[in-house]
Amino acid sequence: MGKPRVTSLENQYTAEHERKEHNRQSHRKRLTRRLTAFFIVAAVVSSVLISSMVTQASVLEDKQTERAQLEQKIVELDKQEENLRNEIVKLNDDEYIAKLARRDYFLSDSGEIIFTIPEDQPAAEKEQNDTAE
């Protein structure tokens, strides 16, 4: 091998061309850096937003579960309130009070004998049926 046979010309056109090529490469390098920075910022923002959405979805699911439980509790309390209102109405009736006194406290009128007969129903169910009436 020997000396290179091609030599560059040292004139204004080649100097201008080399300067333009240098400017274009530096512009490309800055563009690459800006795009890289943009994608990094976009990735960070996206990850924060996705994390926030996952957290909010979890909180929303917890709140919906809590709401369902509270609605069920409201239904139970409404039912209990209705039973208590019925019990109040019944407690204003003297015959019902006498029936309770006979059943629960074995109280009787003079000359009356109370016989208790065992039933098939458990006491809790019977009491619930009485309060529902």
TrEMBL record:
Keywords: Coiled coil, Membrane, Transmembrane, Transmembrane helix
Bias type Basic and acidic residues, positions: 15-24
One Pfam family in the UniProt entry: DivIC
TM helices/strands, residue ranges: 35-54
Annotated coiled-coil segments of the chain: 60-94
Residue ranges, annotated region (Disordered): 1-27
PANTHER family, per database record: CELL DIVISION PROTEIN DIVIC
Record protein name field: Septum formation initiator family protein
Organism: Jeotgalibacillus haloalkalitolerans
Lineage of origin: Bacteria, Bacillati, Bacillota, Bacilli, Bacillales
